[in-house]
Amino acid sequence: MFSRKSFPLINHISRRFVENLPKNIRLELDPDVNKQTESNDRKLAFFKEHKGKFHCKTELPRKLEESINAILSDIEPQRLKIDRKSLQDHLVERRLPLERRELQSIAQNVIENLIKAEPPINTLAMSPDQREQVNLLRQRELVKRLKSSIYHWQPLAFDEYKSKVYLAANFAAHYAMLVQIFNEIKRRERDFQPVRMLDFGSGTGSVMWAALHTWGKRAFAELLNIDKSREMNNLSQLILQGGQQNKVPLVPNVIYRQFMPHGRENTFDLVVADHTLFELENRFERLKTIRSLWYNVKPNGFLILVEQGTIHGYTAINEARENLLYRIATSGDSKEKSTDVNSEESTTTETDDSSSSERHSSPAHMFSPCPHELICPKKQLNIPCRISTRYRPLQIFDIKQNLPDYTMTDMSYIVVRKAERDSNDVYMKWPRVIEPIVDRKHHQHVRLCCPNGQYVNVPISKNKHGVGLHRLSHHAAPGDLFPVTGEVIQESPIVEKEVPTVSEPRKRQRRAYRT
């Protein structure tokens, strides 16, 4: 149990105030992990590996990397290097498209500021030509300020060359993050064997290759890739053919489409949308797409949404999370828990058919990274919740010597399972490490997202928590489950000691001397 009562501590990573773990809570290490840390066997007592450890290092398979290099071999290396860097910068700075009410609010503020800054002008004393000239200058200044204040969103358009640049820039990072997500699903749910997978916004096929790496080529009877760009689909199919045209694909049962299939509900074990929500033109289209993806998930299946690890990517993911948990997937109790979460959504979803939503309603719970279904604690602090992974960048031509062996990437994601939460699952009782560990001289600061919906900081030291927990915290990384549970220590009431009453000092009697 983690309480809200705490003391604030400055988070040196996010520069925000984080609640400190109360002193009356004792952390208990999982018995299996505790046995592992106390073992005399060095291989067993390896603190970097335990059943809550999901942060990993990933590199592309050799044959896959050779196929990509064969496709990119017709591009000049220096040009590819420059274009790849510019595309990566553009994607990091990208924002969601503004809604109509946001545009109206920004325009109203710009007009008010323009009126305040304008000096008083007597237009009655002007000629018609002078008034027209003043109005023209006002309009130009207004347009200039609006352009500088409003983000101009445009969907990404890909031709053959831009598709190859996107392949070189993002394939390795997206592949690594999906491998980490899929590995967690495989390790936690050993009985789960996916047969059909839907990848919405498949792009170059990084999701498909990550799934094949995790479960094997023979596990899937259908791999459906949907992308509106024909060039992206052709490039993904060319990778399947080893970079050579008219060659037999390396993986069978792969299908490419440009549009979402109709009438195939409860069909897929895995439904993934990787870096796709930013391509939808408004909020209504995003929520409509998420609803459609959720209806395609089988019972006990998974819906996975991944975006950039920026504040705007986190906003898109959290918007989808709240809509799934409180409007699409569940009803009744979950809606009562957060009556104010989606108060703004009522204006855009009033036209939805209530009967159809009840018909499609199904239980759901957050599988990863959130250990709860409550409001995200980082939303109030305006901090992006993102998980990092280590990966080896794609080695291309002469750029190979200039790239590091491994690098880091941050992404915001959610994994939602179409099933009720299992109360006996030990993984559901552990908090999640959601920020890098802050090392100090004799202790570490671990930032955790707890099962009760709280975001807390836990200072862990050897003297207070023991050697095992201290070593685990030293090797923890964002994305790992921290194998501890919190127990409230019942403090015994303090009994005040009776203070003896101080009697008045005796008057000193004079001693009588005999004469």
TrEMBL record:
Protein's UniProt keywords contain Chloroplast: no
Region of interest (Disordered), ranges: 334-365
Record-level GO cellular component terms: mitochondrial small ribosomal subunit
Keywords for this protein: Iron, Iron-sulfur, Metal-binding, Mitochondrion, Transit peptide
The keyword Mitochondrion belongs to this UniProt entry's keyword annotation: yes
Subcellular location: Mitochondrion
Cross-referenced InterPro entries: Mt_RNA_Methyltransferase, Ribosomal_Rsm22-like, SAM-dependent_MTases_sf
GO molecular function: iron-sulfur cluster binding; metal ion binding; methyltransferase activity; structural constituent of ribosome
Pfam families: Rsm22
One annotated GO biological process: translation
Record field: compositional bias (Low complexity): 340-349
Primary location: mitochondrion
Known function: Mitochondrial ribosome (mitoribosome) assembly factor. Binds at the interface of the head and body domains of the mitochondrial small ribosomal subunit (mt-SSU), occluding the mRNA channel and preventing compaction of the head domain towards the body. Probable inactive methyltransferase: retains the characteristic folding and ability to bind S-adenosyl-L-methionine, but it probably lost its methyltransferase activity.
Protein's UniProt name: Methyltransferase-like protein 17, mitochondrial
